[in-house]
Amino acid sequence: MKAVVQRIKRAAVTADGQPSGTAGAGLLVLLGVYEGDDDSNAELLASKVALLRVFCDENDKMNRSVLDIGGSVLTVSRFVPIPKRATARLILMQWHRQRLKDFICILSTALKSAV
Fold first, then answer.
1. What's the mean pLDDT when you consider all of the chain?
2. Separation CA 59–CA 62 (nearest Å)
3. Largest CA distance in the chain
4. Is residue 53's pLDDT more than 80?
5. Cα dist. 47→52, 87, 103, 111, 115 in Å?
6. Angle between helices 39-51 and 89-114 (to 10 degrees)
7. pLDDT for res 25
8. Structure pTM?
9. Is the Cβ–Cβ distance between 72 and 50 less than 8 Å?
């Protein structure tokens, strides 16, 4: 798994023109999933994201995590999977549809319990 993490003041995600998620100050996580990733990968990633020290403390040093500030985490669940090689793209897309929802649930649950 790989994640692109962005600090946000606020964010919203829409699907088919309908709002599907919002967050206040915190983090936006765009998730990339490899074939072969499992629950332990999701839990490890959730822990790393929750503990990232990317928010300023009282001395203006980036020394606080999203947990420390009581921030929100918005995970984009329909982000593109990462194929290991170009010929595996079709197989991965089929796997992606079946497994990505499971990973998002695990990642979201782990982040919510951490926050």
1. 78
2. 9
3. 50
4. yes
5. 9, 32, 14, 7, 10
6. 50
7. 92
8. 0.70
9. no
